[in-house]
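Collaborator request log, item 7. Partner lab (contact: R.S.) asked for a structural prediction of Amino acid transporter AVT6A-like to inform their binding assays.
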Amino acid sequence: MTIIVAADRKYRRSPRKSLLPEKYDHQEPLEGLEGASFSGAVFNLSSTIVGAGIMALPAAVKQLGLIPGLLMIILGSTLTELSIDFILKFSRTSKSATYAGAVGDSLGSAGRTLLQVCIVVNNLGMLIVYMIIIGDVFSGTTTNNVHHKGVMEEWFGQHWWTSRISLMLFTTLLIFAPLISFKRVDSLRYTSSLSVGLAIVFVAITAGVSIAKLMDGSIGMPRLMPELIDQASFWQLFTTVPILVTAYICHHNVLPIENELKDPTQMKSIVRTSLRICSSLYIATSFFGFILFGDQTLDDVLANFDGDLGLPYSSLLDDVVRVSYGIHLMLVFPIVFFSLRLNVDGLLFPCAIPIAFNNRRFFSITVALMSFIFIGANFVPSIWDAFQLTGATAAISVGFIFPAALVLRDTCGIASNKDRVIAWLMFLLAVLSSTAAISSDIYSTYVVEKRA
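Returned to partner:
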């Protein structure tokens, strides 16, 4: 433990530029080390937050009812802000440049390793899901022997270059490969701003269609509270927990973004601004998505946009929604990959120099991870159940259990009584929610199989 933590202090720490120091031995400074801007950091953090989770939120609201569902989205944002405040507070006191470094100081090398494993599992799951959705959008998917055409297949017909594996290979080589080759997270600020803009396009179209259909009276009032018919329907409510938790997971990128700021004291404001932007998008998507599709809202609301919306130019609107969101995920992919690579490197080479200064290690890990994600996305038929499981375990651990543990352990002696109360509530809520979500998944699967 002493060797690993000491190495983390030596190589991976500095209140400013530990992961990317201005020079290491005789290496030249990396381009752009003058410091990241407030707006660039906001877009990078917002892009980290708004991924595939936004598409599952209308289904979560359908399960919970409109009022409890929207309140849970607000609660998730509040708890996320508090947990990130804990991470920032303890990392600054211990002079840790990474989330794992702060946990290592507090919980030792075992805690540090466990956190890194959780981040790797969570990020790998998300990135594979991103690629699956991208494949579904552009090349189509087959469910229960029914083929749903993708955008490229609709436009150009069936060809070898519109097949799923071909399109995903082109996406990997032409889009992902260049974007995941950047060694600074701030280099992704422009693609992140575009990804947030495309998410806003999706919300705007959903809201516009919903308002138009409300005005012509073709849709009614949505269900405000959950439907509790039997015990199974009650337990089903807890399956929304992983979705709500995963929607706000960005903790693994907070410190890498802070390390590159011109003024690191702005980080709390950046977090607050990003969460306000993302919460607004989530509330609008959930509200208008559930109003538009009601009880027909699918687990992935994007799948609802493959039919007639009952408005002029419905087919065009469907295509714009699907294409804009597919491109959005392509642009979110590299920023989630950034922290995945950082934590895999921390697991494999805990005592090495920063990965940004070792090209062989950087590109070897990048190629290995990208190959694993590509294979997983092409040969795993559906991993939504696994994604839900990682949300109930790895995501909850990264987002709430470890930040609460930093406060409760308090090796720096800086936690206030208020911090401890919040940490205990956060810890208990996370553990109970995780247990209930996993139990309800098992129970639902058992009931479905038994009825079948």
